[in-house]
Amino acid sequence: MLKTVATAQLQISYEESGEATGWPVVLLHGFPYDIHAYDEVVPHLASNGARVIRPYLRGYGLTRFHSTATLRSGQQAALGTDLVELLDALYIESAVLAGYDWGGRAACIVATLHPSRVRGLVSVNGYNIQNIAKAREPANAEAEHRLWYQYYFHGERGRAGLAENRREFCRLLWSMWSPTWRFSEATYRQSAVAFDNPDFVDVVIHSYRHRYGLVEGDPKFDEMERLLAEMQPIRVPAITLEGSDDGVTPVGGASESLRYFIGRHENRILAGVGHNVPQEAPLEFSRAVLSVYKRSED
């Protein structure tokens, strides 16, 4: 059932499934995807007693800002704050958090800074918190070419290109990042509607400029960004997932980040899977969520 709830900056639109009294799990999508990435994950979790929450991130779907004056920030602290405030608004004391890409980043942030709110964590590509202080240091050529879209967004040509061709552009990313996933046009169109959000372009552009220190963030999040810069470890029960065919972060690309997991942690590599793990491998993703939930109960 599609619902809405108010936080400090947003009216968040979210889908809720399962029993209202079930154990809560929040499933968080990435860029450029939406809550439909979890369509096949939800039944597995709901049948195992979960109350499943799937929010549209800021800039996606029917989620809206309260005020036209609010900076359309896509910085990592904004995503983390939105998630904490969503839990507060839904009166959820603690939940299993699971996500990838932007959503995995939000989940890692809350697991790091508010571990009492997190019963367990599933994160694709490891520790997704951005080290902005090192963002301007070049990587090797193989890693750099995979991030071409981020550098494209650093200029106004990139902003205009995303605004004018968002459907075509995002579909290209789906294909490049999941080269072995044969998704249908109907599947893509179902998610692409979420990119028609009036704030989508502004939030995306701000995200990819802020992470490189090219624009200022929202002052509301300055203190959280300071804490995130410390790159604190994650202590909650966690499973990290890697797709063997991920076109953004190849297998092993997140290996250095795994040292930040100092609690009960397991890394799983999924053969034949690209970047959009929950939609490409819903059973494996569901099993990871159920595993961390059971560990939290031990």
UniProtKB/TrEMBL annotation:
InterPro entries per the UniProt record, alphabetical: AB_hydrolase_1 (IPR000073), AB_hydrolase_fold (IPR029058), Epox_hydrolase-like (IPR000639)
Keyword Hydrolase set for record: yes
Superkingdom to which the source organism belongs: Bacteria
Domain AB hydrolase-1: 24-277
Gene3D superfamilies per the UniProt record, alphabetical: alpha/beta hydrolase (3.40.50.1820)
Residues in coiled coil: none
Keywords: Hydrolase
Pfam family, one: Abhydrolase_1
GO molecular function, one term: hydrolase activity
PANTHER family xrefs: EPOXIDE HYDROLASE
Protein name per UniProt: Pimeloyl-ACP methyl ester carboxylesterase
Native source organism of the sequence: Paraburkholderia tropica
